[in-house]
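Module 6 notes. Inverse folding takes a fixed backbone as the condition and produces residue identities as the prediction. Think of it as a translation problem where the source language is geometry and the target language is the twenty amino acids. Below is one complete input and output pair. Work through it position by position during the lab.
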């Protein structure tokens, strides 16, 4: 299992903006992660005392970043930072997530990659119930290696 400190070493998101607490498992194509911070009253994405389900898209995008960081670290490199450029086919099954008692889990799968972009599918669940799913596309910054 990979814990929060190791995750923060892989991605640009630091402190409270690092949304994942642990990597449960991963391989070259997929990653599974867990988070508990959605219950934190000081969560940086909360507004009006609530954490809305639309923020699960950020959880999905960060799952991509963690996966990219792990894959790059496996080759002795650092992942290039990316910019989220598109969300497609996103469905949200709830309005908010701050009132969910258990942990969030995500599975993300790489769908398409080029030297300068990546597309992933993500599914986020709580206690086995689907909360959100969709696809995210990221453009990688900096020169291709």
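Target side of the pair, the amino acids:
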């Amino acid at each position: 299992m990979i814990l929060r400190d190791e995750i923060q070493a892989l991605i640009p998101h630091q402190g409270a903006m690092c949304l994942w607490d642990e990597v449960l498992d991963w391989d070259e194509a997929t990653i599974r992660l867990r988070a508990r911070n959605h219950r934190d009253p000081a969560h940086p994405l909360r507004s009006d005392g609530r954490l809305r389900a639309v923020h699960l898209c950020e959880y999905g995008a960060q799952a991509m970043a963690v996966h990219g960081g792990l894959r790059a670290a496996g080759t002795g490199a650092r992942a290039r930072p990316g910019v989220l450029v598109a969300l497609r086919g996103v469905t949200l099954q709830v309005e908010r997530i701050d009132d969910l008692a258990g942990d969030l889990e995500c599975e993300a799968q790489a769908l398409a990659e080029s030297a300068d972009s990546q597309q992933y599918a993500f599914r986020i669940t709580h206690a086995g119930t689907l909360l959100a799913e969709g696809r995210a596309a990221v453009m990688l910054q900096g020169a291709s290696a």
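Reference fact for the lab report: The chain has one domain: 2-140.
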